[in-house]
Amino acid sequence: MTRDFILPDLGEGLTEAELVAWLVQPGDEVVIDQPVVELESAKSVVQLPTPFAGVVASLGGEVGQVLHAGQVLLSLEPVGGAAPSAPTTSGTAPDAAASTDAPSTAESSPTAAPAEPGIVVAESAPADESGAVLIGYGTRASTPTVRSSNAPSRFGRGRGAPGGPARKDSGPTTATRPGAGAASTATLELDPDRRSPVVSPIVRRLAREHGFDASRLRGSGPQHLVVRRDVESYIARRDPAAGAPTVDAGPARSAGPEASAPRVASSAGERRVPLDRVQKAAAAQYQRSRREIPDATVWMDVDATGLFAARRDLQAVTGESFGVTALVARFCVAALLRHPSLNAAFDAEREEIVYHDGVHLGMAAQTPRGLVVPVVHDAGRMSLRALRDAIGERSEQASSGRFPPSALTGGTFTLNNYGTLGVDGSAAIINHPQAAMLGIGRIIERPWVVDGALAVRRVTELTVSFDHRVCDGAEAAAFLTDVARSIEHPVSMLADL
């Protein structure tokens, strides 16, 4: 019995993702909750585990293809059943679906359709499946999986594990696959009866702008996929005077759809670069925050000399290292428990203030994919040591831009240490739908009055941006002075521990 792994909602309404790499290929045997695919959403690159055990029968798309929630990621056959004779992909793209006469997944699979994307409910849960599972979280903790040496990837196929023999490919490689050569070998003729797969909307648009249907070409990509170079080659052959195409093709890829961000032709003296998926999501978030939240900002300079002294003492006693961010995060969490209006949100539709029971601390982080806010859940229940470790884990994930889906959802307050960027302060944009954000500027030595005399102290600037619908300036100032007091006199926290 074939079972289909359905692409779920990846969190916070993210309903589409680009295929970065397959971690398995047709014919591979997988176990429950084994990561099988890497997907790039608008916020991170994630590995999704399969809810079923079995043998991979088919993959649900090509590397570089954008899939939507509810589409089939891959199909699995029972172990010991008939294994696929050659790697195939199920036609998830509209053109690919039209190019095959195979019955639809719903007709060929006896498993009932899921009630919603990512939830698969069987009449009875056998021992070889997870049962009712939100795919992407799994029933057991999953560990990152190394890509199969022959599994399709946006970065090409691997050559096997170091020191070990390369796996035998289950199908022709890109170099030998029929129709996978350079564009010069492709059939640059339109055939009204041909229906080639066309995944990229850029390729479709480019063909439309020049008056033809890209699917009528015989593509040079995998499974005769029509890629950008095919369309441009046909345009150049049909109309040599057309000049340069409207979209710069960039480096040609020999495998998979064209996934890189195109550069649109520009006028003299300017350069235009389209936003990628992450930048589009961030832009929408910033616009919504500025449009909906009447924000205000308060700030103050704080003497952090006592914080560094307490940090040295703590490390001397425990033999462990504690970063400044972890210490300030702990002070922040403690202050939020005393000032819950800053750990809240505003429900505009119902005109209600929503107070959160727990503190789920977002940590603004600059990653290779741009600015994201991973979340440390239940930070209000953590000790300093536990909070330090959780922040360290998020920092490691930020260095690669790869987070589990749950890491980017559910934040109730954001801490932004922009001092690492070398600035003193910022009127930060609040992370909608949260009500406030605390910013930490750089910590530098400055002249400071201590007991009526000038002294050199380590000083930082704290900034709180807040939603004026949720709390007023007095409450925001009380929260800010609470955090400042803990930084200046860390021992003052002992009374509340």
Which features characterize this protein?
4-stranded antiparallel sheet; OB fold (Dihydrolipoamide Acetyltransferase, E2P); 3 domains; 7-stranded mixed sheet; Chloramphenicol Acetyltransferase; 497 residues; alpha+beta; elongated
What do these coordinates show?
Residues 81-115, 141-195, 238-272 are annotated as: Disordered. It is an enzyme of class 2 (transferase). This protein is an alpha+beta fold. The chain folds into 3 domains: 3-134, Beta Barrel (OB fold (Dihydrolipoamide Acetyltransferase, E2P)), CATH 2.40.50; 183-264, no CATH class; 279-496, Chloramphenicol acetyltransferase-like domain (Chloramphenicol Acetyltransferase), CATH 3.30.559. 22% of the residues lie in helices and 21% in strands. The protein is built from 9 helices and 23 strands. The strands form 7 sheets. Strands 13, 16, 19, 20, 21, 22 and 23 form a 7-stranded mixed β-sheet that branches. A hairpin with a 2-residue loop joins strand 22 and strand 23 (453-467). The radius of gyration is 27 Å and the shape is elongated.
CATH superfamily of the largest domain: Chloramphenicol acetyltransferase-like domain
Largest sheet data? 7 strands, mixed
Task: Please state roughly what percent of the residues sit in beta strands, choosing from under 5%, 5-15%, 15-25%, 25-35%, 35-45% or over 45%.
Answer: 15-25%
CATH-derived topology of the largest domain = Chloramphenicol Acetyltransferase
What is the level-2 CATH architecture name of the largest domain?
Answer: 2-Layer Sandwich
C-alpha geometry: elongated
**Average of pLDDT:** 75
How many DSSP E strands?
23
What's the CATH class of the largest domain, please?
Alpha Beta
Terminal Cα span: 57 Å
| Poorly predicted regions | 85-142, 154-186, 243-263
> Any idea how many domains?
3
Work out the helicity level: 10-25%
Radius of gyration: 27 Å
How does the helix and strand content classify structurally? alpha+beta
* Count of DSSP-assigned helices: 9
